[in-house]
Amino acid sequence: MASKYDKKFDSLLKNLCNCAHDLGASETVVISARDIVLDERVILKCMVPMCANYGVNLTCPPNSISFDDFKRILGKYRSAILLKISDVSNSKPEEMKGQNILSEIWKSNTIDGMDYLQALRRGQEKLYSIIERIESLCLQKGYNFAAGLSAGGCSLCDECVGKSSGLPCRHPFKARPSMEGLGIDVMATASKAGIQLEFNQGTSSWVGLVLID
Question: What are the DSSP E strand ranges found in the chain?
């Protein structure tokens, strides 16, 4: 028989999912923290090919916590909410215009008059806003260890201050660590949760995660 504490927690998770939908999430799923798939090879992909955020962005490797530290911390969590946003109306770079050399497309940075990076930024900012709100609601209910994670490198600023500058993050209460940078296999985790991610011509998905305990 479920305890009052379990029922209260389950009710909270349901309300948080409803709130995320109201804020613009296309899908929300409550998952066990044990169902978050970790794989060190994900961090390798931050370096091969080298991501522009690697070693520069404060929320990305090697500036984020290590894989082993995150794995240990994740083990202390019970549940999480996986969020999906599907309103980034553009293609991922390697599928645009039939081109298959990713570096050339990033150089041009404009497809059909639309700035690809700006389109991604709009989607990520929407995800950040939802994560921030969900975290705040958790804190109000006494779940002080709620922690939100985003997808990809933070793009809130045109250029991150970078660790070498010694300056603090310009958006310390909005920026969130990259799931991939911590070693989360986002595709596998989403698939396990029953969420299908779109990366087809004309459509992209953003995925976020809020750990709750």
Answer: 27-32, 79-88, 110-111, 114-115, 147-149, 204-212
Is 4 buried (19+), middle (13-18) or exposed (0-12) by CB count in 10 A? exposed
Cα–Cα dist 129/83, whole Å: 12
Q: How many CA atoms lie within 13 A of 138 on its CB side?
A: 26
Note the pLDDT tens digit of each residue in 62-107.
999 999 999 999 999 999 999 999 865 544 444 444 445 555 554 5
pTM: 0.83
Q: What are the distances in angstroms from CA 147 to CA 1, 122, 133, 135, 186?
A: 29, 22, 11, 7, 16
Q: From CA 60, how far away is CA 181, in angstroms rounded?
A: 5
What distance lies between CA 70 and its chain's CA centroid? 15
Structure token digits, residue 137: 């609601």
Domain boundaries, the chain: 4-212
Angle at 156 between CA 205 and CA 22, to 5 degrees: 50
**DSSP E strand boundaries for 5-105:** 27-32, 79-88
